[in-house]
Amino acid sequence: MSLNPNAVIVANKLKGAGYTKAQIAGVLGNFELESGFNPRVNEGGKVGAPMGVGGYGFGQWTGGRQTGLVNFAKQQKMDPGDPNLQAKFLLYELGGPEKKAAAYLREAVSPEESARRFLTDFERAGIPKTKQRQEAARAIYGKLDFLDQPGQAPIAQGVQKPGTNLTVSEILAPILGGVANASVEEKKSIANTLLDEVKSSITENILKNVFNPFGGFQ
User: Is residue 155 left, alpha or beta, with left meaning phi > 0 and alpha meaning psi from -120 to 50?
Assistant: First the structure.
């Protein structure tokens, strides 16, 4: 069975931030247990906008963290239920208010240990279900080989992303993920080079055919 297309979005974002496959699998194993990768699900199963009570989204963000997600969405002018927005918010938290959880996660070397560390320090779930999260992480780890090939992430067919089209940075994310350890300036240089090549060598028709399958994600 292929990886959930929303999980692919999160995986590519985390790879771009320098996380390993094992660590990415740990995060995704948690998200599978939390929400089944449904970015619009509220705690209890109701799908739609954030209710403000209980958890919401991939990580079932609760309380002040759910408010943070909603405010982040407003700043980005995006739907809080957009999977791309939630992937960005995940990185925002790991780089800011949850940076201790990020540092702890980065020390993990196996999917199982990554799942446990992400659970204890980021999710802090009331009902841990640690074993189930670890089993999910191990299963997902076996589906992440595409991360070894920059730019070759599986394409989600027939799935639409609400509210916005893919940005240039999102299109290039799988490619730039391969230089996650480069400096910011090096990444900018690589991105500019890639953009120049795209502009000069790919016609409008080819762009449509290549990127149209992305269509967006729900």
Answer: beta
Task: Measure CA of the first residue to CA of the last residue in the chain; give whole Å.
Answer: 20
Task: Please state, in angstroms and rounded to a whole number, the distance separating the CA atoms of residues 132 and 110.
Answer: 15
Spatial separation of the C-alpha atoms in residues 11 and 151, rounded to whole Å: 13
158 pLDDT tier (thresholds 50, 70, 90): very low
The average pLDDT across 14-22 equals 98
Look at the domain 5-211 and name its fold: Lysozyme (1.10.530)
Is 23 in contact with 110 (CB distance < 8 Å)? no
Q: In the chain, which ranges are continuous DSSP H helix?
A: 5-16, 21-35, 64-76, 83-95, 99-106, 111-118, 130-141, 168-176, 184-201, 204-211
Whether 136 and 29 have beta carbons less than 8 Å apart is answered as yes
What are 50's two structure tokens?
A: 């954030």
Instruction: For residues 191 and 175, give the distance between their C-alpha atoms in angstroms, rounded to a whole number.
Output: 9
DSSP 8-state assignment for residue 56: B
For the chain, the domains span: 5-211
pLDDT at 50: 97
Are 156 and 217 contacting, i.e. CB atoms less than 8 angstroms apart?
A: yes
Question: What is the rounded CA–CA span in Å between residue 57 and residue 190?
Answer: 33
Answer whether 21's CB lies under 8 Å from 146's CB: no
